[in-house]
Amino acid sequence: QLQLVESGGGLVQSGGSLRLSCTASDNTLRNYAVGWFRQAPGKEREGVSCISSSGGNTNYADSVKGRFTTSRDDAKNTVYLQMNSLKPEDTGVYYCAPLMSESVTGGVLRCGSAFGSWGQGTQVFVSS
Fold first, then answer.
1. Nearest alpha carbon to residue 22 among 81, 88, 89, 63
2. Which one of 5, 46, 51, 75 has the fewest CB atoms closer than 10 angstroms to its CB?
3. Mind listing the pLDDT tens digit for each residue in 32-73?
């Protein structure tokens, strides 16, 4: 079963940057679109971004557009989330997951739901 491990979180001041990594247990990750999700204290988990299996298409939540960038390096079985201009409201535990489906219509990537078990996540705390 494909397992993903998140890393790269930490404490950063508002306006700072972090790069998160999502590393897979084997090279089957290249067959899937991958999403990043986050869960803030007392809130439900929400989708942050997704990247297609080819790496050629991405999509972002409105709250992070223009600040976050997701990419993938299939040779390293790793998907990244570069987070710039961080805000206190970006605080939370960040998770990655393979996605059940992907489609591109009119240049817009639509990603399906996550599947499998959630990992431990990586904690991001942005101070004001």
1. 81
2. 75
3. 999 999 999 999 999 999 999 999 999 999 999 999 999 999
